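Bit of a strange request maybe. I'm writing a small parser for structure token strings and I need a real example to test against, not something I typed by hand. Could someone generate the tokens for this chain?
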Amino acid sequence: MVEVFLLTTDPTSEKVGKIKAWLSALQDSYPHQLQLIDLRQQAFFRKRSEDTFIVRIDEKQVTNPEDFENIRLALSEAHMNANSPDYRPTAAKDRLNGRERFSLWFSRHYLALINTILALYVFLPLLAPVMMKMGQVEPANTIYKLYRPLCHQLAYRSFFLFGEQASYPLNVPTGSDRLSYQQASGNPSQDLQAASAFIGNERAGYKIALCQRDIAIYISLLLFGIIFGLTRRKIKPLPWWLWLLLAIAPIGLDGVWQLVSQLQLSFLSWLPMHESTPFLRVATGAAFGWFTAWFGIPTIEESVREERLRLEAKTAIERQTR
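Reply from user aminoacidic:
Good idea to test on real output. This should exercise your parser:
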């Protein structure tokens, strides 16, 4: 027997009555069993602002079910399939398989998963200088080593906690009472390995295990993820061209100019030397993280939304027809 499921958040609506009348008229030509599924029993559908109305015949959801001909064609196809040798019993079709259960879990929890990973990724670099201050040197060093393949950790491009200054740039204005990286560390500015290895000391404080730009990127990614969740995932994706303009262009200009100008290539001798500032690194990093998250996270939401709707509806059928 072909089964027809009428899934709705408003079982008493005129639309439901119309579909029931059509199905009744088709009963003699295409015998079927109709089941009304109240989607209000599912938290997912209760939270949706719009009404949900789905007609599912056999394993397929009917496109535009308010068209009588679509209902008739779907019933006809279902009856043809019911006579095929590989036709599955109704009970098997109405239960989620392992892949579908994982897809449903991911569609429900992907944002929490992303935010948790980002929170941990940001928390550990901030924890490293705290542990150094508390005398927990070995655990702190483990964090620095863990993040070293992921970030250059150059001390003069990183923030410090518990010291005289929040940062120690390569150069400070003449007459300034601020300490430069060379003064704080005792290392020459040309030694990149020493600048990466310098964690800090009691006077200078201790380095965060991610550079200024990276910490700004990941904090802004996390901040957008939290805000996206609080707004019930209603923010639309940023257009790709705006992402290029607002995220890629600023960080590319600042970062690439800094990198290329310091390579001292002869054919680029006309390019002024550029060492970015903490403000520019944070601003461009935060812009990159925020607008990348704005482009990426709502795009993920749109890609999983239809599949989640289908699987939540199938879950409702599974629970209400046991």
